[in-house]
Design goal:
globular, Beta-lactamase, alpha+beta, 13 helices
């Protein structure tokens, strides 16, 4: 007997529930949730499965999980809040807020280049141990002392981990609060979104265990470790990171704004709904429509130096493109996370959708489990 599907789904979107149930019945999930909004209102909020590998804890309405790089979209939202308020100038040098950053050829790098992964700081040269990711002063000092790996602004290279410290330090310098605090007080709190960067210990009992892909799954996906001298290897290996690290208390407590956001599909969809609806949802306005429009203007569309495929970047968001289609509408944007999580907004449809899970798959550019859900959602919108 397949696991039950909990939650709600408006009748119009029954096919989304069917697609979600098919994933669960086929054994593709351990635990997962999918949610979608339309005009800021929840139309799908589903969950199923288990919160642990041993399948002893059910995935419930309030289960949350690490979403890895889907966090980047939420961090970008926080940065654009400061842009909207005039606290952060996208085109002023980063060094104006962060003087130490201007060393070693970085004096002209702007927040615009940082948000669009064009700053040339995807990889760090000085070796760092795994625990460095928990040490904000150490990571930001390492970045301030870094030399760009390519001419800033000339190309994009996915700043997989460094993005969070760069954007996060801009937030801290411009506002005075750490990004996780700003998120809680100014964004997630007012919206009633259960999303956290820096998770209190009190929330641990409801966090789902991340389950890394097996060696067999990696082999079946054709995944091979990158060459040690490659840019990708240096990006992912310094500090070294393993997916199992997400289950450690130290990971949850730290603020790692590129990778350790914790939430469920409902909370991610709620946050992305603000962007989908032009900056306001549920009577709470966070951004002007002009700021949202600016955030999704294409900044770069070339073969990414780290990822190795063409990707279209806005200001902190992946943008839909022929090489990475995110839906039928051109103004669809957001971010995906290691292992499969997704969080996206669609300005044309005024819709948002999110998928989170604890069983990770080997890929980094989308997850086949989510595609039938998204297709069913858009098919319902077209009816």
């Amino acid at each position: 007997m397949s696991a039950p599907i909990d939650g709600h789904c408006a009748p119009r979107f029954a096919a989304v529930r069917d697609a979600f149930a098919a994933n669960v019945a086929a054994g593709r999930e351990v635990g997962a949730s999918f949610a979608a909004t339309l005009d800021g209102e929840s139309v799908v909020d589903l969950w199923a499965g288990h919160a642990d590998a041993a399948r002893t804890r059910p995935w419930t309405r309030d289960t949350i999980v690490n979403v890895f790089s889907t966090t980047k979209a939420i961090t970008a939202l926080c940065a654009h809040l400061l842009v909207d308020r005039g606290q952060l100038d996208l085109d002023a040098p980063v060094a104006r807020l962060w003087p130490e950053f201007g060393a070693h050829g970085k004096q002209a790098i702007t927040p615009r280049q940082v948000l669009s992964h064009c700053a040339g700081l995807a990889a760090l040269h000085a070796p760092l141990p795994p625990e460095a990711v928990f040490d904000w002063p150490r990571m930001t000092a390492a970045l301030a002392n870094e030399t760009p790996g390519w001419e800033p602004g000339s190309a994009s290279g996915y700043h997989a981990l460094t993005y969070g410290y760069l954007v996060g330090e801009l937030i801290r310098r411009a506002d005075g609060r750490m990004p996780g605090v700003l998120l809680r007080e100014e964004v997630a709190g007012p919206l009633g979104a259960d999303f956290h960067i820096g998770l209190p210990a009190s929330e641990d009992p409801r966090v789902a265990e991340m389950i890394a892909p097996t060696d067999a799954e990696r082999a079946a996906a054709g995944g091979t470790p990158p060459a040690p001298e490659s840019l990708l290897a240096r990006v992912l290996g310094n500090p070294p990171m393993r997916p199992e690290a997400a289950n450690a208390p130290a990971w949850r407590r730290a603020e790692i704004p590129a990778a350790n956001g914790h939430g469920n599909a409902r909370s991610v969809a709620r946050l992305m709904a603000v962007l989908a609806c032009g900056g306001e949802v549920g009577g709470v306005r966070l951004l002007s429509e002009a700021t949202v429009a600016q955030a999704i203007v294409e900044q770069s569309y070339t073969t990414d130096l780290v990822l190795g495929f063409p990707i279209r970047w806005g200001l902190g968001f992946m943008l839909s493109s022929p090489t990475l289609p995110l839906g039928p509408n051109p103004r669809t944007f957001g971010h995906g996370g290691w292992g499969g999580s997704l969080g996206f907004a669609d300005r044309d449809a005024r819709a948002s959708w999110a998928y989170v899970m604890n069983r990770m798959t080997p890929g980094t550019a989308g997850d086949a489990r989510a595609f039938p859900l998204i297709q069913a959602f858009y098919a319902a919108l077209a009816d």
